[in-house]
Design goal:
- The chain is mainly α.
- The protein has one domain.
- It is built from three helices and no strands.
- The longest helix is centred in the C-terminal third of the chain and has 21 residues.
- The two termini are 25 Å apart.
Length: 50
Amino acid sequence: MTWCIFAIDYLVRLAIAEQRLRWFVVHFYELAIVALTEQVAALRAELQSR
């Protein structure tokens, strides 16, 4: 659920940015943080299920 809300927010803000490429580069860390957080959570869940 969190990922979906973030994705919508990210895409809307990217769509309304005047300089989309510049906005993407400046805010890329936000995308990386959310993507990595989701991957770590999935890995943690998998390790705990063993």
